[in-house]
């Protein structure tokens, strides 16, 4: 995760440069490949800038262009906070749950709780405990006391605890199970956890 500029003017300039790059890719290739991950980097920039109108516009555009995107933990965290700031608490709640399952260490790390690596299968480097260190300082500094309390309340709720425990259990099993069909069933359940959680 790249560093966030130290002034609003510089943040706006970086956002503008990313948008221009997206438009060039669309014009030249008819699609956006974005191997650099600009689509993710936009979310921390918008969070720190706290321009909710621009954030809402970008989220709509992002979802139209990357509807099948898996996302990454820092982007998901910033998105959930932006949604919370926009007043859509129910949607933000589901997005925070998705953040939690994208990296089970991230929310407790933000809450300054003790975090230890878990002997479980991790889908990518994004889901490892070390990834927490990539959260930009300016993102952490931008979180209000109310937002930290909301994260804390959600994270320690019975609903979050239940889905988190099952997710970790599944991924601990995935670390030991080699049978293709059994792994497939476990992965299917893992992928369904967020959707079932959002319906609660």
Using brief descriptors, characterize the structure shown.
single chain; 200 residues; mainly alpha; 66% helix
Rg, Cα atoms, Å: 17 Å
| Total domain count | 1
Shape by Cα distribution: globular
Strand content is: under 5%
Indicate the percent of residues in helices.
55-70%
Calculate the terminal CA-CA distance, rounded to whole Å. 33 Å
Mean pLDDT: 92
Low-confidence stretches are none
| Helix and strand composition category | mainly alpha
Give the beta-strand count.
Answer: 0
By DSSP (H or I, 4+ residues per run), the number of helices equals 10
Q: Give the H and E element order.
A: HHHHHHHHHH
Query: Biggest sheet: strands, sense, closure?
Result: none
Protein described:
This protein is mostly helical and 200 residues long. The chain has one domain. 66% of the residues lie in helices and 0% in strands. The chain has 10 helices and no strands. The protein has helices spanning 8-29, 38-49, 52-65, 73-85, 89-102, 106-110, 137-142, 145-155, 158-174, 180-198. The radius of gyration is 17 Å and the shape is globular. The two termini are 33 Å apart.
Topology at a glance:
Elements: H1 8-29, H2 38-49, H3 52-65, H4 73-85, H5 89-102, H6 106-110, H7 137-142, H8 145-155, H9 158-174, H10 180-198
Helix pairs in contact: 1-2, 2-3, 2-4, 3-4, 4-5, 5-10, 9-10
In short:
This protein is mostly helical. It has one domain (8-198).
């Amino acid at each position: 995760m790249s560093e966030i500029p130290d002034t609003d003017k510089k943040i706006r300039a970086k956002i503008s440069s990313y948008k221009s790059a997206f438009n060039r890719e669309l014009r030249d290739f008819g699609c956006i490949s974005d191997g650099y991950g600009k689509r993710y980097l936009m979310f921390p920039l918008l969070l720190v800038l706290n321009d909710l109108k621009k954030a809402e516009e970008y989220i709509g555009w992002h979802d139209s262009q990357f509807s099948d995107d898996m996302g990454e933990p820092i982007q998901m965290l910033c998105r959930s906070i932006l949604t919370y700031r926009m007043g859509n608490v129910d949607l933000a709640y589901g997005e925070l749950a998705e953040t939690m399952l994208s990296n089970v260490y991230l929310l407790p790390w933000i809450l300054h709780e003790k975090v230890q690596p878990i002997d479980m299968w991790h889908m990518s480097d994004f889901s490892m405990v070390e990834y927490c260190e990539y959260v930009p300082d300016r993102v952490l500094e931008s979180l209000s006391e109310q937002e930290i309390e909301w994260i804390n309340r959600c994270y320690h709720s019975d609903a979050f605890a239940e889905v988190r425990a099952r997710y970790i259990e599944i991924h601990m099993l995935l670390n030991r199970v080699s049978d293709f069909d059994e792994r497939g069933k476990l992965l299917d359940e893992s992928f369904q956890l967020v959707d079932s959680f959002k319906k609660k």
